[in-house]
Write a structure and sequence with these properties.
Length: 237
């Protein structure tokens, strides 16, 4: 789960593997031995304080094995913490027809435009375009280190607090659904699974954080789970 050197071979994307289903890949570990982030450290006040005075820490996942030689593209996602009494995290399910990461659970976000001022501006613009989350309901707290996907997106996760009185309006072309997951669930490594899968380019590993929402499984995995793992490392440091 470390950064991949530039001379690594090109790996086959999961979407090109016959009959690939991330839910069926072998689980090689569940990190129940690691401590959960205490509930009091997840409050809006505690999150603000953590980003104002961050501790020394190292991200666990920086890059995936690359799937393509196409040019790097910069992107941002909004790690939107809804400031409820018990904070939740806003996630989306991408529509099935999209060219990259179709059908997957994701943060609102996307590619940086030339007119965007910075990574925060990209994340806020994309969140509004995808789910109708208005900027006036969002307070950006800070950024996590970039995460490079196998599809050559260098993604900046922008962590933000969102007013629980917000309203969403989903873009049906990009987003099939939007939902919330308790932040405490995601920041508990007992819910972090590590998977291993053999591909023609060599072995690969990925995290998953399956969440049962009233009988509906939300299978959080891949880049989204990797960035959440980094958020855990930051808050647990």
């Amino acid at each position: 789960m470390s950064q991949v050197p530039a001379d690594e071979p090109v790996f086959v994307p999961f979407s090109k593997l016959p009959h690939f289903d991330p839910r069926l890949q072998p689980v090689v570990g569940i990190d129940a031995h690691l401590p959960a982030v205490p509930h009091e450290a997840l409050s809006p006040q505690a999150l603000r304080a953590r980003f104002l005075s961050p501790p020394p820490w190292d991200p666990e996942v920086r890059a995936e094995p690359r799937f393509t030689d196409r040019q790097i593209a910069h992107a941002s996602v909004l790690v939107a913490v809804i400031a409820r009494e018990q904070p939740t995290l806003l996630l989306t399910q991408r529509t099935a027809h999209l060219s990259t990461h179709s059908g997957q659970i994701a943060f609102p976000g996307g590619r940086r435009d030339d007119t965007d001022l910075d990574a925060v501006d990209t994340a806020l613009r994309e969140a509004y375009e995808e789910v109708g989350l208005a900027r006036e309901h969002v307070q950006a707290l800070g950024e996590l280190p970039t995460y490079t996907t196998g599809t050559r997106f260098v993604v900046t996760p922008v962590v933000a607090l969102v007013d629980p009185g917000h309203r969403l309006a989903l873009n049906p072309h990009e987003v099939a659904d939007a939902f919330e997951v308790p932040l405490a669930f995601l920041m508990n490594p007992a819910h972090h699974r590590r998977h291993a899968v053999a591909t023609p380019g060599g072995p690969r590993e990925f995290f998953s954080m399956p969440y049962d929402q009233g009988g509906t499984e939300r299978f959080i995995w891949g880049a989204t789970a990797g960035m959440l793992r980094n958020l855990y490392r930051f808050l647990a440091a």
